[in-house]
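Good morning,

Attaching, inline, the backbone tokens for the sequence recovery test we're adding to the shared suite. The designed sequence is right after.
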């Protein structure tokens, strides 16, 4: 998958695409419906996604709590797995924000990216002040030489698939419900960071990763499936992870610490993708390290049972 971060000077080989347009946070089933509609609209054309970075909500509400389900790299990885050929990850800067709906359609979609067809969800808004909608895009496209389609709303068990519903499920410790709306396990991606190395001394060495900027799932312990994405230990492993502030040790910065079962190796600096499978228990403090270790033993045994049962 090729990635372009400017709509100017797009090479001819990347022009003429059929593109799904949106933020694609989490790349959930609703987003997949938009991508599939784009693929069906012009099967002979390159399949593209047009998205924005940073997420517009981060620009317009910079003091709001972290809400993103995925960062840009994780989003790109998921889109690549869905067969997207070209990702236009456009900078959501002052110049782009000031474009009227018509100017956005002309300067970005028609002249800049040279789209053959554009697909959006029914609630898509674009242009300065979010003034443009799907009907406007269809009108502009007809005048500017690109086709348009609107994807249907996708539901799961009568619930509309949305990033908001997924965030709610994660906040309540329901990762399987989140996965049903996503169409895949919710994953936390990032490099392994150096930590305090307490786990190693306790017999449970963990891979520490930041969750800064991401919507925090319910704090506690999870059964997880981990993809090590690089290095000599690349592969998939089962494990148990703790998300939170480590109250046993008086920490206050949230992160995720993952213990990989049956693993031996150095993961520092390596990229990991940690899939949340099941919520086991909340964070807790213990009256002794012996009690803490006994609980970790129990957590890992429960996680193994859950993960062994997965198809």
């Amino acid at each position: 998958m090729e990635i372009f971060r400017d709509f100017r000077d797009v090479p001819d080989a990347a022009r003429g695409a059929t593109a799904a347009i949106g933020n694609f946070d989490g790349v959930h089933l609703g987003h997949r419906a938009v991508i599939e509609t784009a693929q069906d609209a012009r099967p002979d054309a390159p399949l593209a996604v047009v998205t924005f970075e940073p997420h517009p909500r981060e620009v317009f509400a910079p003091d709001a709590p972290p809400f993103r389900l995925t960062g840009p790299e994780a989003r790109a990885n998921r889109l690549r797995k869905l067969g997207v050929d070209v990702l236009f990850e456009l900078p959501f800067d002052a110049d782009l924000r000031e474009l009227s709906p018509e100017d956005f359609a002309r300067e970005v979609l028609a002249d800049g990216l040279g789209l053959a067809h554009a697909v959006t969800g029914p609630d898509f808004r674009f242009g300065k002040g979010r003034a443009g909608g799907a009907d406007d895009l269809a009108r502009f496209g007809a005048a500017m030489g690109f086709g348009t389609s609107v994807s249907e709303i996708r539901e799961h068990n009568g619930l509309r698939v949305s990033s908001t519903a997924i965030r709610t499920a994660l906040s309540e410790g329901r990762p399987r419900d989140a996965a049903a709306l996503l169409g895949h396990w919710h994953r936390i991606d990032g490099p392994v960071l150096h930590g305090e190395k307490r786990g190693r001394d306790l017999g449970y060495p963990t891979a520490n990763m930041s969750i800064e900027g991401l919507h925090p799932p319910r704090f506690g312990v999870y059964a997880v499936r981990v993809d090590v994405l690089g290095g000599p230990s690349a592969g998939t492993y089962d494990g148990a992870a703790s998300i939170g502030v480590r109250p046993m040790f008086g920490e206050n910065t949230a992160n995720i610490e993952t213990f990989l079962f049956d693993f031996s190796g150095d993961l520092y600096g390596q990229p990991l993708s940690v899939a949340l499978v099941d919520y086991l228990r909340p964070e807790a403090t213990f009256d002794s390290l012996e009690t803490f270790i006994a609980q970790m033993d129990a957590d890992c045994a429960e996680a193994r049972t859950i993960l062994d049962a997965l198809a």
